[in-house]
UniProtKB/TrEMBL annotation:
It comes from the Bacteria. It catalyses: 2 GTP = 3',3'-c-di-GMP + 2 diphosphate. Residues 382-519 form the GGDEF domain. GO terms for molecular function: diguanylate cyclase activity. The chain crosses the membrane at residues 272-292. This is diguanylate cyclase.
Length: 533
């Protein structure tokens, strides 16, 4: 005799939802353990790597600035004459403890053409006193290890670069041959500048990056992978940079500490979401069993389509929002919230792609437009021009008039540039503090130069006073232009690099002018050579 098995809709619905609930919980647990948790961990490691990248970029920027300062001194006729013995007052005029303190230099070393010491000046790391001498002996004996390493670099043809030495404490070193200002003739010697990576420098870097930083020396070659260790709420990360050491491999470890609160909070939140998801699924089963099809299930299906798919017929949407019960209230609330969310998304999109001060597009939107312009270029004749613009001596403007006036100056210049860009139908963005970039697709070099001259004239026309500028008594700009064909590789970043080099050429030529990228830049200069503001 067979027992009666209930076939009611409630039983079947309960059985189906119960089985679905079990499968969903198992699937959710499997996805969480195999996909979501590893993704959260990977995101945390990526965040740590981004912070290490940021610290390394700051470190590299310091090296580039030091090298630029060395070249500024070394490619100076006065320095050339001094090393040749024709300018005895050079060291009295140009050297002082205040200068070393302001520039954060540890040592400046001049060598003649034979690689022999000509003149040394520096701050004694033990006493903190400024010293000058002709040889690294006696009271200048602390200079000897660095001088030996510098002479080794000269012998090894490595005296035109930025490097890290670690014969004693680690120092950042910039070196270059001493040439005339016009680069003519053969070198008269070499100039080295060092900057100690001491506690004062670390404090400066920590303030600049907003991260606690520590340095360590390792007697082995620099590893290509970062070292990460996790301890409670803290993650310790270290990246290794190579040190110039001809005899034994040495690397400099740059370590940072990051708080894991965000990751741990996300992990806890997700676990709560998993728990409440399971609980909610059980409650839904209990609630669904108490509801009638005509009263709840059909309206809920329509509401689900409305909130998730937004592809239901307009008549059904109207019926939902016109209901006087809870479903109608939810429909109206969702419609209102969805409209509000769309407005927020539009505002967030604008905030993420535009500069808050000037209202111009920012670097992110510029990069997107640049990628699009390159992908739309169909022929060699259909070229893209990239223009980099920089306000001449803007730091002097800020120092003299103050940052509020500097902001007003930036806004006026941005308005003038945007007005011309709108008239001439090209794209312009603010990509740095006083740096702007323009994108001119489908344009010839002559027309690109013409627009550059118009931008120059537009800023001149503002007649913004700049009494401390050595260029003009008013604010001026310099412009560098590169065409798509100028780059060795047809990538957007390569053309931007060429434009940056063209801007450097404009600055080298005296600023307040338009310069095109030239092959001489590609072989002899790099973007790191930008002249000081």
């Amino acid at each position: 005799m067979h027992r009666h098995i209930p076939r009611s809709l409630r039983f079947r619905f309960f059985a189906a939802l119960g089985g679905l609930l079990i499968c969903a919980i198992v699937a959710l647990a499997a996805i969480s353990s195999s996909v979501i948790f590893p993704a959260l961990q990977a995101e945390e490691r990526q965040a740590v790597k981004r912070e290490l990248d940021r610290v390394e970029r700051s470190f590299q920027l310091e090296q580039q600035q030091l090298l630029a300062q060395v070249r500024d001194w070394a490619h100076w006729d006065d320095t050339y004459q001094f090393v040749q013995g024709d300018y005895p007052r050079y060291k009295d005029v140009n050297f002082s403890q205040e200068m070393f303190d302001d520039m954060r230099y540890q040592l400046m070393a001049f060598f003649n053409n034979a690689g022999e010491v000509y003149f040394l000046a520096g701050i004694n790391p033990t006493t903190g006193n400024y010293q000058t001498c002709e040889t690294p002996n006696d009271e200048c004996a602390w200079m000897e290890p660095w001088v030996n390493r510098m002479q080794s670099a000269i012998d090894g043809d490595r005296a035109d670069q930025s490097a890290i030495y670690a014969d004693q404490e680690p120092v950042m070193v910039g070196s270059t041959p001493i040439l005339r200002t016009d680069k003519s003739g053969s070198p008269a010697g070499w100039l080295f500048k060092t900057r100690a990576l001491d506690d004062e420098w670390l404090s400066f870097m920590e303030e600049y990056t907003g991260l606690p930083i520590n340095l360590s020396l390792t007697r082995q070659a620099a590893s290509s992978s970062d070292a990460l260790s996790f301890s409670g709420n803290i993650v310790h990360a270290e990246r290794y940079l190579p040190i110039y050491s001809p005899l034994t491999p040495v690397s400099l470890g740059i370590g940072i500490e990051l708080n894991r609160t965000s990751y741990l909070t996300s992990l806890t939140t997700f676990r709560y979401v998993l728990l409440w998801t399971a609980v909610l699924m059980i409650l839904v089963i209990a609630v669904v069993l108490l509801l009638l099809e005509k009263i709840v299930l059909k309206p809920l299906r329509l509401l689900t389509q409305f909130t998730q798919q937004l592809d239901i017929h307009e008549t059904d949407v109207h019926k939902l929002t016109r209901r006087s019960d809870e479903i109608g209230l939810l429909s109206r609330a969702f419609q209102k919230q969805f409209t509000f969310q769309q407005q927020l998304n539009d505002e967030l999109l604008k905030m993420s792609t535009h500069d808050a001060l000037t209202g111009l597009p920012n670097r992110r939107l510029f990069d997107q437009q640049l990628e699009t312009a390159f992908s739309d270029t169909s022929t060699d004749s259909d070229s893209v021009a990239v223009m980099m613009l920089d306000i001449d001596h803007f730091k002097l403007y800020n120092d003299h008039y103050g940052h509020p006036e500097g902001d007003v100056c930036l806004q006026r210049i941005a308005d003038a540039m945007y007005s011309l860009a709108r008239t001439r139908n090209f794209f312009i963005a603010r990509t740095g503090g006083e740096e702007f970039c323009a994108l001119l697709p489908h344009i010839s070099p002559d027309k690109a130069r013409g627009i550059g001259e118009q931008l120059l004239a537009a800023i001149d026309g503002l007649q913004i006073p700049h009494s401390t500028s050595p260029v003009k008594p008013f604010v001026t700009i310099s412009v560098g232009i590169a065409m798509q064909k100028d780059a060795k590789s047809q990538s957007p970043s390569a053309v931007v690099s060429c434009a940056d080099q063209a801007l450097y050429l404009a600055k080298e030529a005296g600023r307040h002018q338009v310069a095109f990228f030239s092959p001489q830049l590609a072989s002899g200069l790099t973007p790191e050579h930008n002249a000081p503001q």
